[in-house]
Amino acid sequence: RIGRALLDAKQSGGDPFAAIEAVIPWDVFTDSITEAEKLARTENFDYLALIGDGVSADELALHWNTINYEVISRIDRAIPRIVTI
Known about the structure:
Elements (H helix, E strand, L loop, with lengths): L1 H11 L3 H8 L2 H14 L7 H6 L4 H28 L1
Helix pairs in contact: 1-2, 3-5
C-alpha cells in the first residue's frame, strides 16, 4: 500500500511523506526501515568468499533462502500490526 500511495503522490504532484503517513504512522514506518536494515546485507557482501571458505554452492543457496525466509516472515508478522493501525 505504501508503494501505491507513493506512486499516486508522484503522479498527482502530492506530498510523498503525507502519502506514507496516510497509510502508516511515521514512527511505525521508520521502525520497519530500521528492522529491514538489520536484516539486509551490505551491497558489497561477498557471497563468493563463503564458497572460498569451504561452503558448497548448496549450502550457500540454503543460507540465502534462509535469509529471504526470515525477511518474509518478519514482514508477514508486521503486516497485521500495520493493518490494525
